[in-house]
Structures are given as C-alpha cells and as structure tokens.
Amino acid sequence: MFGIGVDLGATSVRMAVVNDQGEIMSKTRRWTESQRGVHNVINTLVEGIKEITEETSLSIHEMAGIGIGAAGQVHPVTGEVIFAPNLGWEHVPLKELLFSALQKSNPTRLSFPILVDNDVRVVTWGEYKYGAGKGKNTLICIFVGSGVGSGIIVEGKLLRGRDNVAGEVGHTIVKPDGFLCNCGNKGCLELYCGGLHLKNRTIREINSGRKSIVPEMVEYKLERITPEILHQAQERGDPLACELWNEAKHYLSIAVANLTTIFNPEMIILGGGVITSCRSLLPTVVATVKSNIHLLARNSVEIVESHLGDDAGVLGAAAMIFDEFK
Amino acid sequence: MFGIGVDLGATSVRMAVVNDQGEIMSKTRRWTESQRGVHNVINTLVEGIKEITEETSLSIHEMAGIGIGAAGQVHPVTGEVIFAPNLGWEHVPLKELLFSALQKSNPTRLSFPILVDNDVRVVTWGEYKYGAGKGKNTLICIFVGSGVGSGIIVEGKLLRGRDNVAGEVGHTIVKPDGFLCNCGNKGCLELYCGGLHLKNRTIREINSGRKSIVPEMVEYKLERITPEILHQAQERGDPLACELWNEAKHYLSIAVANLTTIFNPEMIILGGGVITSCRSLLPTVVATVKSNIHLLARNSVEIVESHLGDDAGVLGAAAMIFDEFK
Q: Which end of chain A is more exposed for a tag (fewer CB within 10 A), N or C?
C-alpha cells in the first residue's frame, strides 16, 4: 500500500510517497511562502504531489490517501485548519481546497481520503509507528523547537481531549510566578526552553547591559541568535549562555519528570531543534529524571532522542492513512 | 445484577451490596485493625459480607462478584496487594485469601470473581460510573486527604501506565527546589496540600517559635491538629494558618491547571478530607484555572466536588465487577 505524507510547516513543506512499511519511495521539499496566500500553498502541494508520484511511476489513483500534518490547531474530522499563527491562517478548509485542486488537475475522479491533523501529533505518530517508539504502547513526544509541542499516545491512541487540544505541554507551569507568557500563564515551560524564548531572553539581557560573548559571535546582529550560537557560547563558558541553558535543563527535566509521574509511560521521546543544538540537554534530563529511584515510573521510563528527524512528519502523515485503512 | 463492593482503608473497611444501577442495597462499616494481622482483616471481610448479603435476603451465589479497592499498590490481575504502608502489608495475596476464606464458610462451590484495585482508582471509577463524572469520557479525580491521590480516565478507560503506577499526581513537582519529599523529589504537590503535611508543617513552625492560635485551639496537644482546625484558624485570621492555606490553594491550582492543559479533560473532580474541610479551596482552584481564558482547555473544563463522598469506594468497587461482565 502507498500513501502520500505532507508536513506543512511555517518555513517549508515536505511531501513524500511512503509505503506501508514506512519506507520513503520519493520525496520533495518546497518553501511554504504562506504570505503569498492560501491558493499559492495549495498549488505548491498539487505540484509537489505530482512530482513525487511521477517519480515513483505510480498513479495518484494508486495512493491510499493523503495525510497532512499542519502547524496549528486543526479539526481532524473536517480537515479545517482552525488557527495557525505561523502560517497566518484562520479557518482554512485545507482538506476541501486540496481535494478540489487535485481533482481539477486530474481527468478521472479521485476517490481517496485526505486526513489533516496537527503537525506535532503527526510527527509523534511517525515516531510511534516507524521511529523511536515502534512497539511501545504508551509514550510521549516532546518537541523543543521555537516553542514546545508534544504528542501523547496512550495505549496506541493519540490523546486528543475534549476540544482536541490535549498535550499542550509547552504551556504547563514549571516555575510558579515565573515569566508572563502570551497564553496568560506565568512560568510556562516554553519560556525556559523554547528556541524563540531563549533568543528573546538573550536579547533582553544584552540590551539591559548584561556582559556576554554572544553579541560578538553574531557580529552584533542580535536577530541572528540561534540555539546553536547559544550552545557554542555556553561551551566557551559565557555566563549568560550557561545560565540560560542551566535553566532550560532544569525546567525541561521537571516537565519530563512530571509527565513520567502522571503517565508512567514506556518512553519519552525528545526532539526538535533545541534538543539537537544542545547535545548536553538530553543526557541532563535523563540523569535528573533517573536520579529519583524511589518513584517506579521514573525508574522504568526510557528517555530517548527522536529517530526520524525531518522525515517524522511525512512518515507519520502517511501512517495516519494506512491506519485509517486497517 | 448485584455485586459486592469493598473499600479497604487504613482505618475502616466499608462493604456494600450494590445493584447495577449503582444503588446501595445494604452496607456496613467495620474497623480495619490491620495491626491485628492479615487473617483478622480477612475475617472482618467474611463477616461483613455475610451480614450485608443476609440483610438483602440474597444469597452470596446471586452476587456477580466482589470488587475491592485497597489503599496501596495493587496488582490488578493477580489481586495481590504489593505494598500498602498504611495497612502495613507487603505482598498479601488478598484475592486468594478472601476467596478461600469465603469458600470455607460456604458449603457450596463459589464461582464468582474477586477483583482488587487501588482505592483511589476504584473511587475514581465510582465517580465516573455513578457520581460527578457520569456521562463524561475523559476526567481526572484528585483526592486530597492525608496525601494526594488521583485517578485518570481517558476515553472511558483508567490510565494505568507501564507499571500500573500512572496518576501519582501527589508526587508531581509544583515548586522547583521546594521541600524535600519522602519520595526523593523536591517540591511535590502533596507537601503543600496533603493533610498530614499541613499538620506536620504547622507543628514544625510552632516548634520553631512561630506565633499562632492553633496550639491553644488544640489545648496544646499538637498531634490533634487537623485540616478542620487549621481551617478554623484561617477563618479567625491566624497568619500561620492563612499562609499554609494560601500555599495549598496556589499549588493545587497549578497542579489542576497543568493537568487540564495536558489532558484537556471534560471534568476534574476534587474530593477528600482537605477539600471538604476548607470550603474555600475548591472555589479558589476554579477561579485560578478559569482566570486563563486564552487556553481553551482551561476555559472548557468543569471543576467540581466529588458527589459520592464515602460511598464512592464501594460503588466503584462493585462497578468494576459489573463492567467486567458487560
């Protein structure tokens, strides 16, 4: 069986033809350029799908369907993107728009389904089906990128919750009376380890006169600060960078420890740009969680890095289609 | 259909004959006196079960089974109580012992099942089937008594986790670098709102010279301090009691807010002696969680007090039997 997986992010959109063993037969990547309008993005999807199916010599009619992970809040039944600030979208009927655009470019009637879900959930599903979490039943994926997203699988099912917003781990409070978050909370996890917040806090500290080697490292163009740069600064002993990373490690460890205590999961998978930039983050989290041998859940959980990297999205999106057909 | 529900606590054991509509046909309560040995407790159960079945004029053979909620860590398949510090039990094969004792006191062969589970999970199941959570799919019960226990139901199933220890909400960290807990963590929820810890902290503060009206209220017998006493002291404006309750409210609110953000549940049910002693605790938690209208999960969750009170355990225990037979 073959399916098409689409990973629709703010910067780029990845598309792949995948078989039901989780092997990528062909793939492509294009700029999302959502500022050019929804229809431009839809065209990008139609062209990309044409390219990757032609590359495999398969017809689009041989596809079991198209799965899409989109960065934002999604209605998994209607396939509408309800709110996606990074794409600048509100109430975009993605499934309908893509289906009718594909139908227009195909002379024969299309009859496959299109499934749309939140990107972090789709990536989690990818790791669960084909990646680090293969064979596990209950696991949590935490992705630390610009912000912090997560997907939770309980006994083989994605935790969705009443309003389909379960798993907002980035907005759990880890520091009572900490920094004020856009969400209205004080002390959200995301504020202490999300890449965007690490950058913004560095800029704030520097602007308020704090000494650091970071400005020189980015040739005084502070907008160029990235988690990689901050990690290099930490390795060179910069006190500001060390302080920020120590906080990131501390609060991420508390969040992982608490999720472990609540879910008693088999595995917690950490991924995203901040985890790959700062190689000492994962080992510190593991050591902190494992330091408590009295709580059985903390003793037994496996904490690992994601396996699929940038392919997790397209693989998870295609897997949604295969699972629908089982 | 009829079943027997048993709520085996450290102080008392409650037993009831329940029908499958969740109505109690007869019930009794006896002292547990676990210090007199396991066989004494088994005898108490056998006698109590005899009494309540006779009272309904039903034979024990007409029972669909016996469900037991026991205070401690339980193996739900073997029915063994693995570790129950409050009962002073370790590796007690409760299911086997009760079955063979009942068989001895009955001339004809017994053929019904006995199910044993953790007391907080059983109480949660009771609230879900017949109490505050009736008709809900995803809910969390938090019981604030001496310690803090919880049960989590996701899409109609109890969350158990890899080692059957999911839901240890009392040992989630709510105050980083807070008090050291017996479990090895620092800043566990239980340390800020569990009744035993409120009492111990009051005694510690008084012994270190802190002024308070509490000692006078308990005639200088500090071991008599209860959540009720502390609540009366708060109402009379005692600064120590006010400080402790404010902390309890603050950290319980954070825990409830975080569980809401993680699970996006339909309902959170709060129960237990500390909740009923301090009537301002629940409204404060509700107000704090609802103060964030930006997070949809916090906006939509219902936060209520448990409905079944002391009957939740026997009802939930009997319901386990009915659900097994569905």
A: C
Cα distance from B7 to chain A (closest Cα, Å)?
Answer: 24
The bridge status of strand B89-92 relative to strand B80-84 is: antiparallel
Q: Per DSSP, what are the bridge partners of residue A117?
A: A69
Section B220-235 average pLDDT: 96
Of B134, B129, B140, B151, nearest to B267 by C-alpha is B140
CB contact at 8 A, A110 and A102: yes
- Over residues B30-56, the pLDDT tens digits come to 999 999 999 999 999 999 999 999 999
Q: Which of A161, A257, A292 is the closest to B297 by Cβ?
A: A161
Q: A135-306: which CATH topology?
A: Nucleotidyltransferase; domain 5 (3.30.420)
CB contact under 8 A, A172 and B301: no
pTM for the predicted model, two decimal places: 0.94
Residues B137/B105, Cβ–Cβ less than 8 Å:
no
Q: Can you spell out the DSSP letters for B105-167?
A: T-SSPP---EEEEEHHHHHHHHHHHHSTTTT-SSEEEEEESSSEEEEEEETTEE---TTS-TT
Share of chain B above pLDDT 70, in %: 100
Q: Count Cβ–Cβ pairs < 8 Å, chain A vs chain B.
A: 135
Q: Whole-angstrom Cα distance, residue B227 to residue B203? A: 13
CB contact under 8 A, A264 and B163: yes
- From residue B86, how far is each of A196, B275, B317 by CA, in Å? 48, 21, 19
Given an 8 Å threshold on Cβ–Cβ distance, is A264 in contact with B295? no
Residue boundaries of the structural domains of chain A: 2-124+311-324, 135-306
Residue B163 to residue A300, Cβ atoms within 8 A: yes
Taking a C-beta distance cutoff of 8 angstroms, is the pair B141, B122 a contact? no
Which positions in chain B touch A261 (Cβ < 8 Å)? Answer: 168-169, 171-172
CB contact under 8 Å between B162 and A301, yes or no, is yes
Residue of A nearest to B151 (CA): A262
- Report angle CA A316, A321, A324 to the nearest 5 degrees: 120
Residue A215: CB atoms within 10 Å? 16
- Domain A2-124+311-324 sits in CATH 1.10.10.10: no
Separation CA A220–CA A218 (nearest Å): 5
A140 CA to chain B: closest CA distance, Å? Answer: 11
